[in-house]
Amino acid sequence: MDRIDKYGGMHYEGMCIRPPSEANSILLQATVGCSHNKCTFCGSYKDKRFRIKDNDIILSDILFASRYMQDQDRLFIMDGDALIIPYRRLTWILERIKEHLPWVKRVGVYANTKGIRMKSEEELIRLKEMGIGIIYMGIETGDDQTLEAIRKGAKAQRILDMGKKVKRTGIKLSVTVLLGIAGKERSLIHSKATGELLSAIDPDYIGALTLMIMPGTPLADDLSSGRFELPDNFGMLMELREMIAATNLTGGLFFSNHASNYLPVKARLPKEKKQTLDLIDMALQGKVELRPEWMRAL
Known about the structure:
Largest sheet: 8 strands, mixed
Distance between the termini: 24 Å
CATH class of the largest domain: Alpha Beta
Shape: globular
Structural class: alpha/beta
Strand content: 15-25%
Number of strands: 12
């Protein structure tokens, strides 16, 4: 069932998720759900069957935004992987945004490797020219064994290839990784492999979230049965330290300031790498207070 926003005009279905950096953006739900929707840790879209919304609904929301959201100069296209929208359809949406919301300076989308692979570099460049300024991609881990276990649908090499493809087009790339996703057994293997993958992609932004188990997911079942063991807070810190130590960027930002994280970090790499590792070492020694469990959230 549609949920109408507080103004009575935007059409939102089910739980709607956007990156923290898009908190003040116009949220345009052009797709419903996630085309992959198989990741074992994610329960965000289990209540939705993936589809692209009808053009008349999308246009209606754009027109509504043109009347009531003139003070918001960024727009985020939801849901889970809007770049999966076929090229011609996506250009139509961007044309309508440019026509009716000419003050919007940047359009952002979530993407998975399949959606990026479906677009040629020439098409991605054209999408950039039409307004797409940033792509958000969930990497989760650089460890192939963990990627298979969580049913991510892509191995590290494909993630690398698609990440570099986005970078070549000039579109900003923001990636997400998950502390704890490999469990206790492969914790440091995962963090090192992830740092190496991040280095190879060299994204503009990295967001490290700490895994919080969502009820009803396959990973929650694995946890309750003992097949999966979550690292404790110090184990998560060790992962963060190993990951940052293995990450070499040309000037990207590394964040772990999401509400799920025990230790907020914001660092420009490589410039602030040493001081960030020093901060984590102090936290591991108990000299820096960690976020308490009751304050952590998805």
